[in-house]
Amino acid sequence: MLFGRLSGSLNVATQQLHDFRRGRRPNRDRPIPVQFNSWYPFLGEPTAELLMPLVPIAKRIGCEAFVVDAGWYRTDNGESDAEWKQRTGDWRTSRKRFPDGLRAVSQACRAEGLLFGLWFEPEVISSSSSIRTQHPEWLHHIHGQETEPDERAVLNLGVPVAWDHAFERLSRILRLIGVDWMKWDFNADLASGGWAPGLPAELTRRDPLVAHYEGLYRMQDAIRAAFPDLILEMCAGGGGPIDGEILSHAHTNWMSDQESALRKLAIHFGTQLAHPPVACNDWLIDWPGSPDGHPGQVEPASLVDWRGDLAFRLRVAMLGTFGISAPIDRWSQSDISTAASHVEFYVTKLRPLVHHGSQSYLTVPPTPDGSSDWAAVWYAAKDGRSGVLFAFRLSGADAKRAFRLTGLQEGTRYKITFDSGESTTRTGDELAAGLEIALPDLFRSCLVERV
């Protein structure tokens, strides 16, 4: 628990909290790559046939890592047509879905200059996992009850032999496949945990929840030590375990399972009051307008809030660490070009500020339904020499809004460049007094770079 008191605005307090938490991050000077993630195009049903064509397109867009999300695995008991949730626990590659193994996908990514990532849910054990029958004592008895046979159970990382088993399975597949990015998910409710009957008394004297989380943190550290170049992303049903301690063991965290850009904009404002932007991972989630019959692909375009163009949705996702999860093989050339230009801007201009700069909210938090007027976020370098402003016009009637850009050197003249290509020159004190942004249409956005 962390308490503090200081003079100044909420932005000042948030910036100091961000600096404290960034200082405890592992490998804090390592850039978090822009990722492509397979989840939304395939929703737990990825195959080599579907994924391989996306690898060169992800490279064209400018992504730096290609992450295969849930559904790539089988259990010790063999192949299954069960949904992805009912195959977790044993972490063996499904040859039905990947006939040549996942290493073939990993090598294809490397051939394109992309890192390769893989999704796991190490703590959640499906009903078909061999652990359920061979080692039921490794599982939590939540509220003192054994998990029902058809429900998913939770592996107790406070049990040393269970910890050893999970670490061996994870390490083996990370090494054999060649994994650069590990996404660690947790879609279960651990509640207060609970020891299985028959475990040693010296173990069960401890609180089961405390023992589990100490095991979790220790495994995160052990995996990073064994694979020092690995990027470790945490996830839990959409931002569940983003706590201060997790931030000191993992590199970034999936922020929310919300698909709507307007809802995610509100979530950024809330989450990043406590957590620095570099710790909050987000994706552009987008579809073309209609399905074209690709096998295995789904069409959840109804998840997208179409208020706002592609640039608007990209910019919301760029407010922290950044990725794309979409059927990019069905995008138009125009959409690919728009995404590529934003990825390039993120990598060259914004990422250093997300990782190391100061963030300020220039408006009150927007509402999730988009009924607010404007939302604006300002990222500035610690030395005051560069910065990026994100301005989003929502439902407000005013087409113009002035934003005060703080943290500047008063007598210095700055070149201000808008995403339209227009530029102007202002002094630091003029910008502190307010920079006017004009957006004639609702649900449009503006990027402003200061150099």
Task: Set out the fold topology.
Layout: H1 10-23, E1 35-37, H2 39-42, H3 48-51, H4 54-61, E2 65-68, E3 73-74, E4 92-93, H5 102-111, E5 115-120, E6 124-125, H6 130-134, E7 153-154, H7 160-177, E8 181-184, H8 201-204, H9 208-226, E9 231-234, H10 244-247, E10 252-254, H11 261-271, E11 280-285, H12 310-317, E12 321-325, H13 333-356, E13 358-361, E14 374-380, E15 387-393, E16 400-403, E17 413-418, E18 423-427, H14 428-433, E19 435-438, E20 444-450
Parallel strand pairs: 1-2, 1-12, 2-5, 5-8, 8-9, 9-10, 10-11, 11-12
Antiparallel strand pairs: 3-4, 6-7, 13-14, 14-15, 15-20, 16-19, 17-18, 17-20
Helix pairs in contact: 7-9, 11-12, 12-13
Amino-to-carboxy terminus distance: 38 Å
Task: Compute the number of strand runs.
Answer: 20
Say what the CATH topology of the largest domain is.
TIM Barrel
What percentage of the residues does DSSP assign to strands (E)?
A: 15-25%
Looking at this structure, what is the CATH superfamily of the largest domain? Answer: Aldolase class I
